[in-house]
Each structure stands twice: as structure tokens, then as C-alpha cells.
Amino acid sequence: MIAGDVATPRQNNLLHYRRMADGHPYYQFGLELKPSWTERTVLEMMVERCGVDPDPAHLYGDDTIDPDITIDTLEAMGDRIGLAARRRESVVLATGHPATLSPLYQDVARALAAAGCRLLTPAAGWTYEIETGYGGTDLRRVVYAEPGVAMLEDTHGRTHHTHDPQPMEAMLRALSDSASTGSSEAKPDFWPDLAIADHGWAGAAGQAGIDTVGFADCNDPALFAGAAEGKIDVAVPLDDGVAPHHYAPLTAYILARAGLRQDG
Q1: Which residues contact 225 (CB under 8 A, 6 or more apart)?
Q2: Are 148 and 100 in contact (CB under 8 A)?
Q3: pTM (two decimals)
Q4: Residue 81's closest CA among 257, 223, 236, 203?
Q5: Which domains does the chain have, with CATH numbers?
Q6: What is the mean pLDDT of residues 101-113?
């Protein structure tokens, strides 16, 4: 269910491609993408980088993700994570899919921490207001799952899906402000060497010039476009909405490739 024939509707994919090409901020994930994208060139790029059906006349039904592309990009992600471990880099991890991808990120975070990496957790508790529809608003705040995976939570303690880049932008501002004001917590290596993320968390990190590896579904073209433009280092195509236990073999594969675990 993670790759191959996936349950993401083709009509939803094409809608997102069109809106990204039109420059709609919600579908740009915090990336400042070139204005030359069109719905056609986005589809062509997604065929190449994700493996969606290349037929422009395929307008309805399910779509595809090429498993070979998923494996190749997982290996590239594992290689970059392995480099971070060997260098003991500073890393930020964040997910807009806490209900499904949190265990994957937490396993990677634990492995990096055990290897001596510094997991950055800035702006914990930072809040912002979102529109909930029908004129309503709600607050979202940045929280961290152990040992350091950022996600959003509402005022009732429920985690939430998000495409927003604002939380990562707030995290990076907090790091920058901490260093510029001479905070006792600031260190010379305050800035992330690597971001492991998805959605707007990844887009904002890549836009800030941070090495960024991330996951993206076939209806999330912005990260793949960011990779095509050189702002995202690795975008792994996968269905990001299946049950968490389905990602366990994938997690083991990444860590084995990174040299952090040999059981994958």
C-alpha cells in the first residue's frame, strides 16, 4: 500500500498539480518555486520523480507510485542520514502526518541521538491561529514527540495533520534569534545541518537552505518540484496515510542503509 497501486485519487492529484502550478501557497509548502510550472510540466515531473500514471487522459480513479523510485530515494535518504550520523550533525525532524508517520520519525531520531547527533527542538509551545472553515479559527502549537520530532497539537492535546510551513519557519526563527541574542543555550552549531520532514515542515527547511530529505505522497507535488529545483535533497514518494505499522520495514531499510541498524 505504500507504493505501487495506491489509494490516492487521480482527480485529487491533478487538482493539486494545477493549484501548485497556479502558485497557491497551500500547495507550495513554503517553497518559492519558479513561476514557469504548468499543470502539464508538473505532471511530467511527477511521472519522473514519483511514478504517477503518465496518461494525461487518466482523470479519475486511483493513481500509482513507482516502487523502484521509492527504493532508490530511500537509499539516497539513508545515505544522507548515515552521513549525518558519522558527522554527528545537528538535525531537526518534523511531520505533518503525526497519526501515521510518527513512529518512523521517532525511530530515526532515536538512532541519530544514539549516534551522537544533536536533535534540535526549538519553539516548543509556539502557537498560531488557523482557519477551521465556516469562519471559525483554532490554535495550533508546536510540540515534540520523544526524543525530538516536531508536530502540531491543538489546545485539547490532539495532534493534527498540516501542510503549513509556518511552524518550521518559527522553529528556524527561534534558532536564529537564540544565536543572535547570545543565549546561553546557543552554540556555534545552532543551525540544522539536516532536516528530515514532510509537507510544509520540509518545504520551509529546504527554502531556508538546509539539507532536507523528506517524504511526499503523489498528491504533494511541491516537494518533488523543490527537488527538481535543487531546494530539496531527497523526496521519497510514498502513500503517507496508511497504518503506522506498515512503515516498519521501510524504517528498518533506511536505518540499515544509514549504517545505524543491521536488521533491515
Answers
A1: 20, 31, 33, 37, 42, 45
A2: no
A3: 0.94
A4: 257
A5: 67-258 (3.40.50)
A6: 98
